[in-house]
Amino acid sequence: MEVGKDHDLIASANEAIHLKLVSKGDEVLEKSESFHPEFTHQLFGDNEAIFGYKDLEIKLYYGSSSLLTYFGFTYSQKIDPSTSDGVKADDIIQILSDVLPQGFYTNQDEYMRVLEKEESNFKPFGEIINSYSLDDQTFEIRKANVDIPGFKAYHERLRTFLIWYIETASFIDDDDEKWTFYLLYHKRKDHNAFRYDIIGYMTSYNYYAYPDKIRSRISQIIILPPYQRNGHGAKLLESYYSLAEKDDNILDITAEDPSENFISLRDFVDCRRCAKLPAYSDQNLHDGFNENMANEARKKLKIHKKQARRVYEILRLKATDRSNAKEYLAYKSYVKKRLSQPFKKEEKDLLKLQKFLKPEEYNAAIIQANSQDKVQLLNDSYKAIEESYLSIIEKLALY
Ligand SMILES: CC(C)(COP(=O)(O)OP(=O)(O)OC[C@H]1O[C@@H](n2cnc3c(N)ncnc32)[C@H](O)[C@@H]1OP(=O)(O)O)[C@@H](O)C(=O)NCCC(=O)NCCS
User: How far is CA 23 from CA 26, 227, 283, in A?
Assistant: First the structure.
């Protein structure tokens, strides 16, 4: 076999991996309702490719409640080192073993035998902090921590989804009791008992905030793909927020390295919350962000000042009549003034530099600073920001 010519031997890891949530043995045999990861680069490199197999199919199935894990793979052909100058196929078992939970099953029959028992014996973790119904189905949000017996092993199964759906995911140190876990379950009746299928979860970490408070930082949030875009992410975040609002020890809430998806979810939820505050009422929105807004958002909703201002800009745009040229211009100038702050700082730094640089060095620095078209840059940034704000405003009108 000639290596490098046969592209059939290179599989897209994202396509080859089939994830599925199963609660009955026979569901393990079918591929229907499986879904694919969005990211596999942490395991299979930047190209997200698996080398050495033809028609590769990897099954990674999880018990829908217990998350009991099965891992198996099939292929029609595997590269043979003896006929390919010693080139070997990627060691899929070795690579996946790094992220899979301990005790995963590789024997399908055995997995099918154990699955149903594990599923029916499963008890949800943590205390209930909220419940809601959607389309006649009941959902429960529970708060848990690492002290709960059996939780660490369960979390080890659950966290693998982060690798598949968050580009920069990393596993947290779950020996640290400052982590809190918020688990979202679908509570459904099965004969005479209830089953708790996991829908998603989020984690937060308690940092010290001077002088005697806590800063709660959201670290990861995920809703499993079959359940996304139904409002569950918003419910999970809102439930965590309403608990934090009542907690006098919490100064404010921040987020760790927020992704685009998370920013959009948080903006939507925070706009809904802030819109109820007197400081953010429509008549107060046209004169700029003020301390009163920052204070109300922090004291009542634990929203950090930077986010409180962002929410202000979204709600002000919502209250702006964009067909009124004067009103719209006032809005644009307001946002652009904030966006131009870094340029102003750059100009100030240059003035300071003038004292220390030789005239020719100073001139070179000025040329460099002007080389980019700042006005264009400012306009482009404004356009991108307005677009993202408008998509939140659209959603606010819908839900
Ligand atoms: C980001 C994430 C947590 C959002 O969860 P979700 O349950 O899909 O979010 P929601 O359903 O509440 O809102 C998402 C969309 O559903 C729509 N939606 C449907 N019903 C809704 C409702 N009742 N309320 C709010 N939004 C609703 C909204 O239009 C929203 O639109 P958008 O995707 O354009 O923003 C989820 O997509 C996810 O897990 N992504 C992968 C992991 C990730 O990126 N995590 C963030 C980084 S840590």
Answer: 9, 16, 53
| CA of 200, closest atom in ligand 1 | 39
Cα–chain center distance at 275 = 24
Contact 197, 23 (CB under 8 A): yes
Helices (H) then strands (E): counts for the chain: 14, 13
- Could you say which of 256, 346, 347, 361 is catalytic? 256
Domains of the chain, with CATH numbers? 7-120 (3.90.360.10), 123-257 (3.40.630.30)
- Asked if residues 221 and 183 have their Cβ atoms less than 8 Å apart, the reply is no
Strands 69-74 and 49-51 turn out to be unpaired
Mind listing the pLDDT tens digit for each residue in 164-199? 999 999 999 989 999 999 999 999 999 999 999 999
For 74-103, write each residue's pLDDT tens digit.
Answer: 999 999 999 999 999 999 999 999 999 999
SS (H, E, C) 104-136: CECCHHHHHHHHHHHHHHCCCCCEEEEEEEECC
SS3 of 238, please?
Answer: helix
Q: Which atom of ligand 1 is nearest to the CA of 220?
A: 48
256 in catalytic set: yes
CA–CA separation, 317 and 323 (whole Å): 12
Residue whose CA lies nearest to ligand 1 atom number 24: 231
Check pLDDT > 50 for residue 369: yes
